[in-house]
Amino acid sequence: MKYEAVVEVLLKDGVSDPEGVAILDAVVSLGYGSVSKVASGKLFRLLLQAEDENSAADVVSEIAERLLSNPVLEDFRVRDLVSSNS
Amino acid sequence: MSKVGIVVFPGTNCEHDVARALANLGVQSELVWHGDSDLSSYSGVIIPGGFAHGDYLRPGAIARFSKIMSEIISCANSGVPVLGICNGFQVLTEAGLLPGALQKNSGLRFICQPEALEVVTTRSITTSQLSPGDRITLPINHFEGNYTCDSQTLNLLIDNDQIVMRYIDNPNGSIDNIAAISNKGGNVVGMMPHPERASSALLGNSDGLKVLASFAASLVVGAL
């Protein structure tokens, strides 16, 4: 089966996020004073072959843990794992 | 004659500066491509600065899986001197040879300037020719140089004498002003400042030669 997974990687709380801060400055200067935080992160879309949804989820988690994120700085979340026709 | 292997990834850009600085000290070196897998002819390894694999994903994240890295890891574990400078430091943390990680500088700036440093210990391959408390000035040139680790790791670094150099005026937010650390054995060192860029009195600063001369001294088997 073919699956598509989206992996979201965000910096842990307290990790320096100058991109988020710069975007927040821009958001506030556009007049959206109600916004108090912007966190920047990364999003990866993976297409893969797997026996079933569980093994697809296992492989994607393993890749996210070994390569896509650094556990000292970042948290990851596998989301939107769906079978794919593409 | 001992020879140093200088590892080159796509995007590395300080390899020739390192080779030139070593040559000034009479130390032979050769460039080693990251796709190679033999370091047996070298008595020490340097991972120089730059942007290995474009720094895509995170600095060092992709370099860490280059073919040469398993060889570097076995060198490191058998006591061979391994020095990571700037991007090389980031590669060593990603590879798990050094604890912690380099996060983005506090503040919003890429920093490129000379920085005053204090030598903390001589029990490392980069400081054996210096003394604790010595002050040297080396250039830094980075966006992700803000060293961080959890408090347990920091305590271990302090207790095991693994903090090699500290910034006098912390430029990037690094925890405990850390500029350079070593592994427990002292044979693997990661440092954000660039010793090779301060290796000529004619160009205004040769403090880096003391660091590289220490590294050269460590190439002699059993020197550490």
Question: What does the model show?
Answer:
- Chain A: It comes from Acidithrix ferrooxidans.
- Chain A: Part of the FGAM synthase complex composed of 1 PurL, 1 PurQ and 2 PurS subunits.
- The complex is a heterodimer of chains A (86) and B (224).
- Chain A is an alpha+beta fold and 86 residues long.
- Chain A has one domain: Mth169, Chain: A (2-Layer Sandwich).
- Chain A is 33% helix and 34% strand.
- Chain A has a three-stranded antiparallel beta sheet, covered by helices on one side.
- The mean pLDDT of chain A is 94.
- With 224 residues, chain B is α/β, with parallel strands linked by helices.
- Chain B has one domain: 3-Layer(aba) Sandwich (Rossmann fold), CATH 3.40.50.
- Chain B has five helices and eleven strands, in the order E-H-E-E-H-E-H-E-E-E-E-H-E-E-E-H.
- In chain B, the strands form two sheets. A nine-stranded mixed beta sheet of chain B has the order 2-1-3-4-11-10-9-6-7, with helices on both faces.
- In chain B, helix 1 links the parallel strand 1 and strand 2.
- Chain B is globular.
- The two termini of chain B are 18 Å apart.
- Classes of the chains: A alpha+beta (86), B alpha/beta (224).
- The interface between A and B is medium-sized, with 14 and 20 residues.
Please provide a brief summary of the model.
Chain A has 86 residues and is of the alpha+beta class.
Q: How is the secondary structure organized here?
A:
The complex is a heterodimer of chains A (86) and B (224).
Chain A lengths: L1 E10 L6 H12 L11 E9 L3 H16 L5 E10 L3
Antiparallel strand pairs in A: 1-2, 1-3
Chain B lengths: L2 E6 L6 H10 L3 E6 L10 E4 L20 H10 L4 E4 L1 H8 L6 E3 L7 E9 L15 E8 L3 E3 L2 H9 L3 E5 L10 E5 L5 E4 L15 H12 L6
Parallel strand pairs in B: 1-2, 1-3, 3-4, 4-11
Antiparallel strand pairs in B: 5-8, 6-7, 6-9, 9-10, 10-11
